Amino acid sequence: MSTVVGQEGNNKQQTVAVIGAGIIGINCALELQSLGYRVTLLDKEGIGLGCSKGNAGHFATEQVFPLAEFSLLWQMPKLLLDPLGPVALSAKHFIKAIPWFIQFFNNMRSTLHDKNKKALQALNKNAISHYIALLKAAEAEHLISLQGSLLVFETNDRTKVELMYQHYLAAGISVKLLDKNQTLELEPNLSGNINYSLYFTDVAHTVDPLALSKTLAEFAMCKGMTFQQTAVTAVTQSQNGVTVLTDEQCLNVDLCVIACGAWSKELLEGLNYHLPIEAERGYSLSLPIPATASAPLSRPVASAERRFIMTPMDKTLRLAGTVEYAGLNAPANYKRAEMLKNNAAFILKTLPDNEEKQENWMGCRPSLPDSLPVICQAPNHDKIFFALGHQHLGLTQGAITGKLIGQLVTGKSPEINLDPFCISRFN
Ligand SMILES: Cc1cc2nc3c(=O)[nH]c(=O)nc-3n(C[C@H](O)[C@H](O)[C@H](O)COP(=O)(O)OP(=O)(O)OC[C@H]3O[C@@H](n4cnc5c(N)ncnc54)[C@H](O)[C@@H]3O)c2cc1C
Questions:
Q1: pTM over 0.85
Q2: Domains, the chain, ordered by start
Q3: Which segments cross the bilayer (predicted)?
Q4: Surface-to-core class of residue 417, CB atoms within 10 Å of its CB (0-12 exposed, 13-18 middle, 19+ buried)
């Protein structure tokens, strides 16, 4: 049960350290600063430079199905055998990843799968409306585009597409099934290889994930938040508050939020919490759109068969996707970013092509084996909160996570049931 640590109204002098300036930490910091706390945001790299930087920018609220699905079990061997396929597992990392995979497979059981799906549905439900409100307040509505998104199919098998359509409908997602002509009407630059699409009408995308992080952090700074670029090495709680030990100093605060994405394990272990987190490394390739050309797409387009996504961004088309299990520190294999371009050539009539200015990027998705993040008050530390492990949906769930952390910290009843998101499920 949550302990009330900072009731709204008497929190003016309370200080909070938010560790990790990714989209999750930034949203928590902004919310707490808005609630009247004195917030210091800390990051070892800078603002928004971790996994939140080069992602696909898709507010993907339709993704309510946990990744641990039985159907994946049969596809896995084939997926893993292709070194440049959508999923790769490095031989060096294989042994280390086994415990995570065991838990991942366990979460495929239908009772757990359904339970996790319900939790994701609740978390995603108001994820976009919270962003809209935030961006309106920050006068940055240009960073969000409400054009929906498409999931396109090259297959001729309509039954297969129908099945998926029914699956989304049953999960309460706003979706339309479009045939080839309807799809091309919506996105004329898609190639003739596309036969069907699912049109998710209520989703959105950002035209620049890094600008989104920076804008929200600047907005929080205007309200009084401070930022420090420094690595946090340990967090401890005492009767008086929380001590945050960094490379340079010892920061004493009343409360602390840990939002270190894929790097969260060490700080949590220091507090005696087990966190089975894997870095699900993904890649993106940004193709600059010539100043004279119009954007090749109006909305994110994901390929069902090729398992990647293309998002029109400010001056670039960003291709993103793939999953690579290789740990946090292995060097990036940018061939995985390049292969996205080969895939895009099947889906688009024309690709923006200026090889010199293309930018490739690798980011570590913070993934837990049940596809749910951790959003909670630390069970044995009433002054410490966790907001981490948002896997493929951290951008989508940033604003709602900030709201929920604000509700937990102020002792209000959270707007959704947070039991499924508690760290205690692993401890
Ligand atoms: C290819 C790709 C495409 C994606 N597309 C989408 C998408 O379309 N939609 C979506 O919703 N999600 C998407 N994601 C997932 C999304 O990017 C992540 O879930 C999200 O960025 C996680 O945010 P975060 O703030 O938890 O982590 P991060 O952004 O990684 O931030 C964590 C921060 O903590 C800092 N840090 C870590 N340890 C310490 C320490 N000890 N001291 C100080 N600082 C520390 C790091 O420097 C980092 O800045 C995608 C991911 C990838 C890889």
A1: yes
A2: 15-52+210-275+371-426 (3.50.50.60), 62-117+145-204+277-367 (3.30.9.10)
A3: none
A4: exposed
